[in-house]
Amino acid sequence: MKWLKRFLLAWVVILALGGIAMLIPAIRERVVYRAYLIQLRVRQMIDPPEAEVFVPQAPIEAPLLPTATATLEPTVTATLPPEAPTPTTVPSPTPLPGRVELLGVTYVDQHGAFNYCAPANLAMELNFWGWEGTREDIGTFVKPHPQDKNVMPYELADYVRQNTQLGVIVRNGGTPELLKELLAMGYPVLVEKGAIMRDLTGVDSWMGHYQVITGYDDATQEWVIQDSFYHADYRETYEKFMTGWRSFNFVFLVVYPFEEEGRLMDLLGDYADEQKANEMAAQLAADEIYRTQGVDLFFAWFNRGSSLVLLQDYYGAAGAYDQAYQVYASLEAKTRPYRITFYQTGPYFAYYWSGRYQDVINLTTQTIGSTPEPYLEENFLWRARALLALGDREGAVRDLRESLEAHPNFNPSVAELQALGETP
Fold it and tell me: Which residues 6+ apart lie within 8 Å of 209 measured at CB?
């Protein structure tokens, strides 16, 4: 029996040494992180989130689409604030140069912090114009909880407006030609795109990613990109770039000095008017529905819905999202972009304002359940609103508090709690 005693003694020694090692913070953190990764991978194998499909409870007929050659007419005339300088005509180079590469962006990576591509890329966009802050300055503002999974373009724009002496515009429906014109006139452009990247479960899947575009080369058909995840001067083909950009409705953000506002607005043309830009984005999505298939068709329908939300056509938007989710259900599971409602909340606006509260609840619940750490403040907010509309005050308050756990002092959730007479 000596061998048994030795075996047990060895295990006692191993456990004791393990316990001592766990008292060392660096070792403990690594062990806990490894255990977390194992948990994620087991969950992925047992219950893959891409296998679940959202089925609208009250689908409506798809909205009538303009034909691929139709042109939407603007309903709002662009105006500049009284204090803005009078625009002057500054035509972009005609023809555009075949190659442009802007210098002066200090590269910032996103590594060492969770989901930090938004702060890192905005830092690059700002430092081009002489801003001297850090990515952490931005991160503290846009994602006060370190595990927050998403920062939206409007949150980045809010940071610029509230914390810098620079101007900013965010628009949807951009085109490669517009990007080239902006670059040729000296403006780097921040975009949000979809990308296939390896997640913590070891699976290559779709997720959102920000990049700063600083150049292009027609000879090689490539964009020059400051990519916070990969490296500076990262190159991506025009075709691959468009595939990724499509999944975020071709959104773009431009930072500029206020003294250049007139120059930039003139360069933007119809995009200077946000209403007109949203109409063009809706038209672009309608055109793409006629010429795409598979996951790109899903994004085209989704973009159509998102643009109609911005135009406050909620019933039309709801119909477009219904069509998008029909396409989604037909996709091969591994190609489904299940994280899309981490980043984009258009369906919640459309279904809520169409009175389809249960669809809001079902879709937010599916999204929240797709990740073990649902730091998704917008999803909890919208589920709370839908629960309240259906008379579940207690559930609404609980979700609003969950929203604030994910994003402390998140203004919409604070306002909703105060309206209910609750302390945030």
Answer: 117, 192, 193, 194, 195, 197, 229, 244
